[in-house]
Design goal:
elongated; 126 residues; mainly alpha
Length: 126
Amino acid sequence: MRFLRIWAILLALSLIIGEAYRSWGAGRPVMFWMDDMMMGAMLIAAAILVRTDTLRRRAFFAAAWGVNAGMLYPSFFGKLLTPEEANPGNFDLALLTVLLGLAFVSALIGMVLTILAPRNNTAEAG
């Protein structure tokens, strides 16, 4: 679980920093960059909380991965399928699409591994 926690924090920070760079001075409306900040913050909070591996905290961690995957899905496929409608901000569109694809796959893998990871026997039931 420690590896997943570190991976989650690194993914979250890359999303937050990447979105800040992408949007800085590009005139993107707040609702189009605030979602990345919120999903990154949720993933960081869940990664910190699941240090004590309870059922609820594990569920929150898996949900945070799922939120990331769910929000990255339309962003990635939207740029892949309709690039003419995309606003890459300060990124090259091709690079942004690849980075979003990697983040999407990473979130899916993180969610599945969190669900399948064995429980710590000394963890609380709550």
